[in-house]
Prior knowledge:
The structure is a single chain. It contains ten helices and twelve strands. By secondary structure, the chain is of the alpha/beta class. The strands form two sheets. A ten-stranded mixed β-sheet has the order 1-11-12-10-2-9-3-4-5-6, sandwiched between helices. A two-stranded antiparallel ribbon has the order 7-8. The relative contact order is 0.21. NADP nicotinamide-adenine-dinucleotide phosphate is lined by residues 41-42, 49-50, 57-58, 61, 84-88, 91-92, 128-131, 133, 173-174, 176, 194-199, 202.
Amino acid sequence: MGPLEVLKEADGQGPAEMPTALRELYGGQLVLRPPVVFANFVSSLDGVVHIPGTGKVGRVLSGDSQGDRFVMGLLRACADAVLIGAGTLRASPASNWTPAQAFPEQAVAFQELRLRRGLAPSPRVVVASASGELDPAHPGLRGALVVTGASGADHLPGELDAEVLIVPEGPSGLDLRSMLGQVVHRGLPTILSEAGPRLTERLVAQGLLDELFLTLSPLLAGWPAGGGRRGLVGQTELLPHRSVGGELVSARRQGSHLFLRYRLTGAGPGLSGGLSGELPSA
Ligand SMILES: NC(=O)c1ccc[n+]([C@@H]2O[C@H](COP(=O)([O-])OP(=O)(O)OC[C@H]3O[C@@H](n4cnc5c(N)ncnc54)[C@H](OP(=O)(O)O)[C@@H]3O)[C@@H](O)[C@H]2O)c1
C-alpha cells in the first residue's frame, strides 16, 4: 500500500514517535490524549454503516479498501482498549480486534509502536452486553472484559474465559458512563470504540464520545425500505433540536476514499470532562 495523502493535519505533534513505516504510511504522527473515547467507522457515501445479514460489512462498505484496514490497525495499535457491543461481537465470529488482524502487513510495526508508547502487547477487548447472551467460544472473548448488568450476569455462560464487570442499568440500558469510568480506572484510558450503531447512539446521546475517525467510502449503499440499515447514530433523533457535530482535525485520501478525523462538539462533556470527578489522579 502507498502512503495516505495528507489533506489536513491539525494535531500531529506528540511525545512518542511512531515507527518510520507507520509514520510514512499515515503521513505523520497519530496523537491521542487520554482519557479519550474515539470511534472508528466506515460509511458508504450515503451514510450506511450497517447492512443486516451481511458478513464483513466494513469490507463490503469500503470496497475492501487497504487504507481503511490500515487506519483500523493503526487505531487499534494506539488503544489500551477496544470497546464493542455484543451485536458487533455476534456479527464478527472470527474477529479478535487486534491491530495485526486488521492489517497484517504492519503487524511488527504495530507491536513496536505499542512498545514505544508503553502499551500492553494487545488492546484489551471490552464487550458490552445487556442480555449476557454470549458465545463463550468466540475468540474475541478470550481474556476480554465483559460488561453487563445484574440481570445479564445471570445469563452469562459459565465457561466464559473473561473478566466480568457488573454496572448499574437504567431505562436506556447499561450505565455507559460508569462502564467507561471503570475501564479508565483499570489503567485503560485510551478507548477505541468499534461498537455498532446501537451502542454508539447511546454513547453520543450521553455525551461520551470524544472523537470520530470516519472512513468515507465512495460506494453508495442505498436505503431499501424495511431493510434495517443504519447510520452511525442509529435511530437517535438529534437534528433539528440537538446539534452534535464535528470539528475537522485531519483529512487524508487514498484514491477516492477519505479518512476523516473529527473532534465532536455539542455532544456533551466527553470522557475527560464527563468523568472528571471519577478519574484517578495522575
Ligand atoms: N461500518 C462500520 O464501521 C461498523 C462499525 C461497527 C459495527 N458495524 C456493524 O454493525 C453491526 C452491529 O450493530 P449493533 O448496533 O447491533 O452493534 P453494537 O452496538 O456493537 O452492539 C449492540 C449491543 O450492545 C449491547 N449493549 C450494552 N449496553 C448497551 C446500551 N446501553 N445501549 C445499547 N446496546 C447496549 C447490547 O447487547 P445484548 O444484545 O447482549 O444486550 C446490544 O444488542 C454489525 O454488522 C457490525 O459489523 C459496522
